[in-house]
Amino acid sequence: MLGAKHRIFSKSGKDSTEDRVALHRIILESLKIGQADTRVKKACILEGELVVYDDSLKKILPFHKIRKHVSRRGRFLNTELDSLPGPQEHLMIIYYDIILLEHQSLINLRHSERFKILSGLICCRKGWAELVPRQVIDFGQPLGASTLRKIFATAILARKEGLVLKADEPYFDFKDCRRKFSSCCIKLKKEYIGNFGDVGDFSAVGARYDSTKALSYQIPGLKWTHFYIGCLDNKEAVRGWGTKPEFTIVNVVELNDTILREVITYSNPEPAPPEENRAFTLKLAPGIEQGSPPTVIFTKPLVFDLKCFSFDRVGNTGFWSLRFPSVTKVHFDRDFTDTISFEQLQALAREATTTTSKLEDSQENLQWVAKLEAADPHGIAVDAPAMAFYRPSCPPPSSRSLFDGGGNSSGADTEGLKFVINSYTSESELQTETKPDRLKPSPTRVTTVWEGGCVYASEDCMFANAVVLVSPGLLAKREEAKRLLAQHGVDNPVTDLNAWLKGEKEARQTGKTTTFSRAYVVCDSGDKPLYEHLDKTFSELRQDNLFNKGTQIEIHDWRFLPYLTTQENKSVEMKDFDGFSDWKIRWWLGTI
């Protein structure tokens, strides 16, 4: 920037200064250009994101709203079916980096240092110019991965697109021996993980051929390269009354080589020219067609299993469609009447783009944390306590980021990296697991509790002289929970909760003294049906006078066990509980 001159470039490198004219004043005011206290006297290069903000709703609007505010050479494209922009809507810029200030390059500085400079440069104004929200996660701490999951789960519930993870490193690393992925960022979206992006079955109602795309397949005699995805408008009438099907085409997809060969080999969609199609009616919006209509219609539609990255309202359509859809499977044994209808698709899209309330510590938040943990290799969280013990004479191995191992550019090699990447420990630093001998439970005992003693706190363990009950199936599904309980001396917890409650109630009715003064229930709150059953059971107990005295029952989600380990492990000096001051609060579910 020089004087009042400024340029705006898009990600592709295109000069978009004229197209973003509505943003010019906002940028100049946020930098205080022309004012006495501006810090930009000569030039600067900033990075930011263009969004649309609604003053009445006090929130950022979906990305498809941008096209109503940004022209292309003076023309607003693909907005014919959009509503007019309201007076409360306007463009906004969110700054997230700076790489040059006053002709001095900042690319050799760490991200944290660059962001500090950026923070002192920008004059923020709510809804117009702001700094990107950010959180620092130190993976030198035991709960770094857990913190990331919590943040990610909250972002998912807030219907955010995802997270961008950046190492605290220079913008570029020009060293000859640069580390792999040095200075790279990571886009983290739930759809990148497992089957979180699965939507369901859709009908492929037509296709066309593109000669350029066909070259990438190298399949002799290939007839189709692009497939048109349709949703039934009258699904119930078709299934119940045999009415002529009516489809709205919502997306056009390409297939990978393997799936395309399956379609060619095993399918028979009975293709026909569009003018000869009598099987059903098709609606094709201009925004979907984009000048390339299907050249054949499948009178016997194929059934594709699709996944996508959220939903979008493409220009000149007027409805929600899949964003970046991809075909994961072809179902040759299913009929188009079993696929998702147009109404169902719109409902899915609205639900996926509507923010829920009470995001923090909600039941749904816990469920997403559990899903993210289960998505790690073999269903075990990568930050789960290692199945090993360190010899007392040996110091614990240091945690290292994937990006550690070598100096950075100027000013970037003095501290450990803060980055949202899991720490790993080399196998050579681990000792073979050696569990101490434990007392074997008697087969006649109903409430075996503290068997061999806690390896961390001995008689001072939370579970010492208490009965521990676990919800049905927990130990089979959560190997980590079983291992952690054993480390705290609980080898044989009570798994028949109903039998224990019955025995406890009978003992109180007969006036017999109960053996234990404390009891702990460990369950999986992410298992919604089971948790609802347990919650109902405990709610009834709270109304029972027999349980108003005697044994106190505390209920915890099993994910509190790593916190318990951190609390009782004296070798851990820095007690980090994911930001909670009281380690019991995060996963505490109630007390009777």
From TrEMBL:
Pfam families: DNA_ligase_A_M. Residues 93-233 form the ATP-dependent DNA ligase family profile domain. GO terms for biological process: DNA recombination; double-strand break repair via nonhomologous end joining; nucleotide-excision repair, DNA gap filling. It comes from the Eukaryota. InterPro entries: DNA_ligase_ATP-dep_cent, LIG4, NA-bd_OB-fold. One of its GO terms (molecular function) is DNA binding. Gene3D superfamilies: DNA ligase/mRNA capping enzyme (3.30.470.30), Nucleic acid-binding proteins (2.40.50.140). This is ATP-dependent DNA ligase family profile domain-containing protein. It comes from Fusarium beomiforme.
